[in-house]
Amino acid sequence: MGPAVLQPDRASEPTEGGESPSNGVAQPEVPGNTRDRLEHFTFAWYTVVMSTFGVSLTMAATLKFEPFATGSGWLNPVIKFTGLSLFFLAMVAFIFITITLLIRFLRYPKTRQPAFKRPREGISAATFLLSLAAMASSGVEYGRLFLPSDIQARLASVLHVAFWVYLGSTFLSSLAQYHWIFTAQDSWRLLTKDLSPGWIMPIFPVMLSGTFAAACVPSLKADQALRVLSAGLVGQGLGMMVAVFFNGAYLTRLVLLGLPHHRQAMFIAVGPPSFTCLALIGLAAEVPRILAELGGGHIYGGIERGFMGLMLTPSKLQVLAAGVKLLAVYASLFLWGLSFWFLGISLVALYPELPEKEFRLSWWSFVFPNVGFVLSTLKMGAALGSDGLSWFRVAMSGLLFLVWLFVFYRCIRGVVKREIVREGRDEDHVEQPAPVPTP
């Protein structure tokens, strides 16, 4: 017999009306009151926070581009006001979602463990940590724009501690989440037909430690900056490599089973290479300053040690720093190309229309993974001195804001129309296996 070929299981995919015909019976829509709907309020709501912080961050980054850097034109204050408004909106959303989740867990104690251990819902728990990383990165950028230098200096020590706490907690969280996925009971287990880039979400927060480090390093002393830079690279590399392994399985699934029903989740694949590109260039930009301040040697354990065991002269340090920046730029080029390809594949998959008409929280995947692509494009344009890339990034930033507006509108409409936050429509829903026909 030849090898078995995986076949797509269409029976378990929801219909356009939101019904799940996996058991052959359409589920009736139960209106339910607000309290009943609260039971289905999941961690996936943090994707709203991630996306909003992300768009505000792209606007702050736009202000570094020369045509918008000066305050003489009318666009500069408009971008500042819009970005800062989105930042505070994301802060309010983060507080509201956190309080609502706590109320859910207090009112429905039976949902506590499944929220973390049931793979489909537990994968989205990582969005809480991702929201913290997005909050920190956006806060740093807007702090540099609006806060006086003395307050920024005080916040630098807070960021230093926050980075190490974030790195440790995200690493432990990734171990726990993947352990629960690997040991899930059969009725909760993820299936090959459902494989998507979303399965990398538990490792995503660890990966963003690199971009978090890139935001922290400029405000740290050289010895602290070197440690944060090195640890950030460890986390970024770990997340990127795990994403590479999952993407290999994901592409195999596309070849064998075709496009997934939830096309919006395909955009998550854009995130890992683009955020890694962003982290590499951002961290490498600080290497010349770090090496210059260390002066080729530093005191560690009472002993003078050279950089990486080498005692280098200032001229050699300059050459080394330039080499590190050059390597980072060219390593980032192929990562940027990979993220661009994933973006293209995801966009083409939307043609001629979305197979899913009703809103789901996974629609926010149209926004937050692409934030990394927009920011990395800006970094690549600046590093290569390419005005074309920089203007392309400005256009992408404007388009991303329009997408955010559309998804935000559909999100509010989805709550009002009961397309989400109700039985069978959220990440806490468990599909029942199709009944075995009796002869």
From TrEMBL:
Keywords linked to the UniProt accession: Membrane, Transmembrane, Transmembrane helix
InterPro entries (alphabetical): Mae1 (IPR030185), SLAC1/Mae1/Ssu1/TehA (IPR004695), Voltage-dep_anion_channel_sf (IPR038665)
Ranges for region Disordered: 1-31
Membrane-spanning ranges: 43-63, 83-103, 123-143, 155-178, 199-220, 240-259, 266-285, 327-351, 363-384, 390-412
Pfam families (alphabetical): SLAC1 (PF03595)
A Gene Ontology molecular function term of the record: malate transmembrane transporter activity
Record's bilayer topology term: Multi-pass membrane protein
Keyword Membrane part of the UniProt annotation: yes
Keyword Cytoplasm among record annotations: no
Entry's localization field: Membrane
Family matches, as PANTHER family: MALIC ACID TRANSPORT PROTEIN, MALIC ACID TRANSPORT PROTEIN-RELATED
Protein name in the entry: Malic acid transport protein
Taxonomic source organism: Canariomyces notabilis
